[in-house]
Write a structure and sequence with these properties.
Blueprint (H helix, E strand, L loop, with lengths): L2 H11 L14 H12 L10 E6 L2 H9 L6 H4 L2 E8 L4 H15 L7 H12 L7 H23 L2 E5 L4 H7 L7 E10 L17 H4 L4
Antiparallel strand pairs: 1-2, 2-4, 3-4
This protein binds flavin mononucleotide (FMN).
The site of flavin mononucleotide has 11 residues, from strand 3.
Length: 214
């Protein structure tokens, strides 16, 4: 099939699942591909200020559900991924990234000094440092988008989830004091045949409302 047709069909097929089939599990090869879509997500300066926490323990899922408006997706999906962001993007975190670049690309760390300085003067010491949490969260949402689209292309269902108490998640997941904070989650798995949302027509504004050309 034409790649455009494939993408179009997948994006029409996907919807935010309300009721998962709790008996169906994503196989490990598919799960590895979904993880890879998260890992390969682009981020500003390539800093990757994220962590993706897969919650497997049923008891923990139940507790998270209780602080997620009791949404059934938390317990009934195959894989539940909590998306966390780096609270403080500091010089040490940027150095970690520079070290990785030097290692992967086999260049001296010193050759990256100018790049490192530019990043620090922007997001650590510059005016953007005041909004660094929002900046980090935005990077995580790019990962969410990558994950949702990849899942759709693979025929894996998903629900992006913001209907949760991030503070309670941080407590339950032991993130307090770790430097990582919950921002959202994604439930992944397979739709239940009786999900009432399955047959709803997609609601999107028309092209003329959302696209402009100047
Ligand atoms: C960031 C974000 C957070 C969302 N949070 C929830 C949620 O907590 N529970 C839920 O059932 N749907 C949630 N949704 C799903 C949206 O309601 C849904 O994507 C939107 O209505 C469009 O419908 P569609 O995804 O089925 O095309 C969320 C979507 C996004 C993008």
């Amino acid at each position: 099939m034409d790649i455009r047709e494939t993408i179009k069909n997948s994006l029409h097929w996907r919807y935010a699942v309300k009721k998962f089939d709790a008996t169906r599990k994503i196989n490990s090869a598919d799960w590895e591909m979904l993880k890879e879509s998260l890992r390969l997500t682009p981020s500003s300066y390539g800093l990757q200020p994220w962590k993706f926490i897969t919650v497997e323990t049923p008891e923990l899922r139940q507790k998270l559900r209780e602080v997620s408006w009791n949404q059934s997706q938390v317990t009934d999906c195959s894989h539940y991924v909590v998306l966390a962001y780096k609270e403080k993007v500091d010089a040490a975190f940027i150095r970690k990234n520079m070290t990785k670049i030097a290692q992967v690309r086999q260049v001296p760390l010193e050759s990256l000094a100018g790049f490192e300085k530019a990043i620090i003067s922007d997001i650590v010491e510059g005016p953007r440092s005041a909004v660094i949490e929002a900046w980090a969260q935005r990077q995580v949402y790019i990962a969410m988008g990558f994950l949702l689209e990849t899942a759709a292309l693979m025929g894996v269902d998903s629900t992006p989830m913001e209907g949760l108490d991030p503070n309670a998640y941080d407590t339950l997941l032991g993130l307090k004091g770790s430097g990582w904070k919950t921002v959202a989650a994604v439930a992944l798995g397979y739709r239940h045949a009786e999900d009432p949302f399955l047959k709803l027509t997609k609601v999107r504004f028309d092209d003329s409302e959302v696209f402009e050309v100047r």
